[in-house]
């Protein structure tokens, strides 16, 4: 029997005290390593930055979501690679542009065999779960637990797809998604392991059906119309005029709650009819036409949209309160974002898809105590392409070379300031045409001031100077005063297409 070296005696004594299990010197050294954070990734669907009160000029109040800005960082220039639901989710999972991950539009099917950040976190010891909207057709991979909506999913009484088969729930979908997520946190996860919870809401996606508790909120409020609501689409490429996404012409009676609503329980239907019946009767009696009718449609749309966000904000509060109550806040990285931006009447539109600012830009709020200074704001040009790399870096996991984004940790830990070698421009590519809303395919480059867009199927270009024209009402493409800027932006666009290995489409418009 060998004598115990003096330097190991304290370790063996400690092992005896905790139950006789011996630990190695290497294991003891591991205790000095930074503890892997839990990660809560929250994504709403079509949540415009204009509808988060942490952002200047917002239409509404979102006190729970705002907590993340007050206790963390607000990004004012976060953009997407492709402004549409499914593709945005595929980009975030893979850290690769749509042309490389294979999910270019909402008619695609996600290849779940690809390398994704949840798979890498699993290998690093994380328990992983996804709850809520998935919208990628194939079953989730890389998750220990999943409970997701079928397709878009309804606002009421959803069916959730799980590894054990479909399960039907009664109630309001935003609340149910949170119930399932909290149940996983409380009852199903291993508290001795770090977790990744991907918590994704359907709301506020079209057709904007509020929760029973918010059906009458804003009835006595008239929201201001956006400055560009009566846009005539002159001085731009032809696509802006030929789209099909206006409040005036595209919204349906179903969008506007003028039809009988299906899929509600008797109790839900009673509350719904009590709220919308009198309002619809008053609308019919008013017999509105012309701009008065469009104004009514805008008010109906924006109130229902914001009512849906009220439920999202309430449920984000439930999640944040749980972290507080369980002592998890200090070691949890929380990210709040949307799959893209959304039009709230700007240019007379709803929906997304364009490289114009309201759909190209998305909200991003990040809280990580001890790493992110509370109340900071970043102007750095960042993208949803960067989200997976950020989560991997926070967990101490090596970022694969095939991922095309950048970790945001230097910005998060640097008071919002971008490093010297940060990207100076962003690249964008939208593919879904022909398709819903008739937005033409286009790609482009943005450097924080100038935005060059190629509508390659139309053979048309746009160039915007957002300093002089923040509402993007007048393209200066081909203007002599912008000839030098235009040439530089063309060069940058060519460089980014090569950098990101995007050789689609083969046909391009003449410069």
TrEMBL record:
Q: Which PROSITE patterns match?
A: SULFATASE_1, SULFATASE_2
Q: Which InterPro entries match?
A: Alkaline_phosphatase_core_sf, SGSH_C, Sulfatase_CS
Gene3D superfamilies in UniProt: Alkaline Phosphatase, subunit A (3.40.720.10)
GO molecular function (one): hydrolase activity
CDD domains noted in UniProt:
G6S_like
* Signal peptide interval: 1-28
Task: List each copy of the N-sulphoglucosamine sulphohydrolase C-terminal domain by range.
Answer: 345-498
What family does the database annotate? Belongs to the sulfatase family.
Output this protein's name: Sulfatase
User: What is the protein's species of origin?
Assistant: Blastopirellula marina
């Amino acid at each position: 029997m060998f004598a115990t070296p003096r330097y190991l005696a304290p370790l063996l004594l400690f092992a005896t005290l905790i139950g006789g299990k011996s630990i190695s010197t290497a294991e003891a050294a591991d205790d000095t390593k930074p503890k892997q954070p839990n990660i809560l990734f929250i994504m709403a669907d079509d949540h415009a930055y204009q509808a988060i009160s942490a952002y200047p000029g917002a239409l509404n109040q979102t006190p729970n979501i705002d907590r993340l800005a007050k206790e963390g960082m607000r990004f004012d220039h976060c953009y997407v690679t492709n402004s549409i639901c499914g593709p945005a989710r595929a980009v975030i999972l893979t850290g690769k542009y749509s042309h490389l991950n294979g999910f270019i539009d909402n008619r695609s099917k996600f290849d779940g065999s690809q390398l994704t950040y949840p798979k890498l976190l699993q290998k690093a010891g994380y328990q992983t779960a996804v709850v809520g909207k998935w919208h990628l057709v194939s079953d989730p991979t890389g998750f220990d637990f999943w409970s997701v909506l079928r397709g878009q999913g309804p606002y009421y009484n959803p069916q959730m797809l799980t590894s054990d088969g479909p399960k039907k729930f009664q109630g309001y979908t935003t609340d149910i998604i949170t119930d399932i997520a909290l149940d996983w946190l409380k009852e199903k996860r291993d508290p001795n392991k770090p977790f990744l919870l991907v918590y994704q809401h359907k709301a506020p996606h079209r057709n904007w059906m509020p929760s029973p508790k918010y059906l009458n909120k804003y009835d006595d409020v008239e929201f201001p119309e956006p400055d560009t609501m009566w846009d005539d689409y002159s001085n731009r490429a032809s696509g802006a005029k030929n789209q099909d996404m206006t409040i005036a012409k595209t919204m349906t009676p179903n969008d506007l709650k003028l039809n009988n609503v299906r899929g509600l329980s008797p109790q839900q239907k009673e509350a719904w009819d009590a709220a919308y019946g009198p309002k619809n009767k008053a609308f019919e009696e008013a017999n509105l036409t012309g701009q008065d009718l469009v104004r009514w449609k805008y008010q109906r749309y924006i109130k229902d949209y914001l009512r849906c966000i009220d439920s999202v904000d309430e449920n984000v509060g439930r999640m944040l309160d749980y972290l507080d109550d369980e002592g998890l806040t200090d070691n949890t990285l929380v990210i709040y974002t949307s799959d893209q931006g959304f039009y709230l009447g700007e240019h007379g539109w709803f929906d997304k898809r364009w490289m114009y600012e309201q759909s190209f830009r998305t909200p991003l709020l990040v809280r990580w105590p001890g790493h992110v200074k509370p109340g900071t704001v970043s102007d750095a040009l960042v993208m949803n392409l960067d989200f997976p790399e950020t989560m991997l870096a926070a967990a101490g996991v090596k970022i694969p070379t095939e991922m095309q984004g950048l970790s945001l940790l230097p910005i998060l830990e640097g008071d919002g300031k971008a490093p010297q070698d940060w990207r100076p421009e962003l690249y964008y590519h939208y593919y879904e045409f022909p398709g819903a809303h008739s937005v033409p395919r286009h790609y482009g480059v943005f450097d924080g001031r100038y935005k060059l867009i190629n509508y390659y199927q139309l053979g048309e270009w746009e160039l915007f100077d957002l300093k002089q024209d923040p509402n993007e009402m007048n393209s200066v493409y081909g203007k002599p005063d912008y000839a030098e800027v235009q040439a530089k932006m063309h060069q940058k666009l060519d460089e980014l297409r090569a950098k990101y290995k995007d050789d689609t489409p083969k046909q391009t418009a003449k410069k």
